[in-house]
Amino acid sequence: MGDTTQKGQTRRGFLRAGVAAGGALAAGAVGARAAAPDPLITEIQPWAQGFGEGVDATPYGMPIHFEGEVVRRNVPWLTADPISSINFTPIHALDGTITPQGCAFERHHSGAIELSKDDYRLMINGMVARPLVFSYAELERFPRESRVHFCECAANTGMEWAGAQLNGAQFTHGMIHNMEYVGVPLKTLLIEAGADLSAGWVFVEGADASSNGRSIPMEKALDDVLVAFKANGEALRMEHGYPVRLVVPGWEGNMWVKWLRRIEVRNTAVESREETSKYTDTMADGSARKWTWVMDAKSVITSPSPQAPISHGPGPLVITGLAWSGRGRIARVDVTVDGGRNWRTARLAPHDGDKALHRFYLEHDWDGAEMLLQSRAVDSTGYVQPTKNELRAVRGLNSVYHNNCIQTWWVKPTGEAENVEIS
Amino acid sequence: MSKFHEILTGAALAAALAAPAFADPAQAGPLGLGRPALPEEIAAWDLDVSPNGDGLPEGSGDVATGEELFSDNCASCHGEFGEGSGNWPKLAGGMDTLDNDDPLKTVGSYWPHLSTAFDYVRRSMPFGGAQVLTDDEVYAIVAYILYNNDLVEDDFVLSKENFLEVTLPNAEGFFVDDRDAAELPLFVREPCMENCKATVEITAHASVVDVTPDE
Q1: Per-residue pLDDT reduced to its tens digit, A6-17
Q2: What is the CATH number of domain A298-420?
Q3: Contact check, Cβ <8 Å, B116/A277
Q4: Which of A9, A221, A301, A396 is the most buried (most CB within 10 A)?
């Protein structure tokens, strides 16, 4: 990305913007008298005089080009090839809770495939009275549900186990998105096929070459899993499994099989590649946890953060971030500015949010001194987000997955922020 | 006009048939949607192989054949001996490294079930050319992966019949998620709000590691 875009949006740009901020600081308190009339106000601007674009200039609109930095980014050294890789949601630049599909992170194991609704088939087989094949159109004839849920990759924050590595909330916490889904409960389709609901498992797989097969306990399948075809009001994007994906609320994103093509009712887990060699958590003694499905309660401050530095001097500052729990709702988020010596309870934006992202705000009067910023989520089960050292004490450094530790941003007097660890 | 009348009648009939289901959106029974899956269709898609051997096809393959197939189909990413290449997965080696600082997780050192290797190779490999291999070829490649992990001799032949005789070294290395017992008692607690610690020091900096991509 170039450094010629909006001031303050890139780190290079920030250094220049810092000079301007320093000037404003020297001028005195917030609301000081302007030295000269602002030409943006006193001179008639072109947009106030001529025409803007007519309707239909963009039949499907993209964000205005000023927002061109708000995009998914990847970390090239993480994986061998972008075909089997991941990128990150720009959570540092978003607000509210719904993630726009166009910048919601992608994780592919064999690339994002192009599968039309006409070519789509969904099979249910195994321990069922009636093995069935559904077309896409038939799925839309079942009673639907609409629900908002977060989808978090189990590897989110996984690069941070051994130390502070990546400098930005997008990179440390951006393997997450949160959408409003519409779909058919998996339970409905299981009943349609006359599935043996006392069977232990369903195995689900996608139509792409990786298949990404995963075994899901029947209890979860009957509880809240959705076979979804719409997100945020429109069709799923190709990169998120168009035309049909699985939504497995509160559980690791790898189970949210995209391009869902087959559901097999079984008595045992398949123990596929994705549930043995990957998505298992290696402990310090070399043993490994398997079937670690639920995502523990977690939160992160999205602004200020390394990619979203403070661009103004002392005074009113909005500290904001996201919190979520795979076990239910977020009851509370606390924020510290002094590295965890003292905490204040943040304001949660009103929101039901079962297994969904919550947005928190803390209005802070910044004195311009350095801060060690952290947030700490408490969920509806009473689980309190642990520190990284507390997690390490249980799991060691090699777990890779399920790192839900408290994140620290060191905010300097310049307003710049860095990913650090603290005692 | 008569055609229009027929359509109306048909729609009314369908609505009447469906009425019990619509009365209870939570759905008590089937709606009669979908069509029967044919045996040929199930056979084409239901390829999964389980640790108990369920799903294994007839066939066999030897290490020498596997070596040739591996060189042609797999080595560009995984190396000639499964040792890996760049960031691509390593398939061999890493024995007794799982408790090291940087464990090497391969089919030999980490994977619990041989069925997983067969299932994955048959279903999804080679990368970019899934399902081009015959079942015999998959047996041969899996035999070669075992050989590279020093788990079989060079004259070994893997088949449906002897598949379950192979036990991978880390078969007993996994345990079911115990967070409810091991972690919830630690982390379900009353959080401290004031004077929670005396001092705070920065102990690590991401800027020192310096691996963040340039924007």
Answers
A1: 433 444 444 444
A2: 2.60.40.650
A3: yes
A4: A301
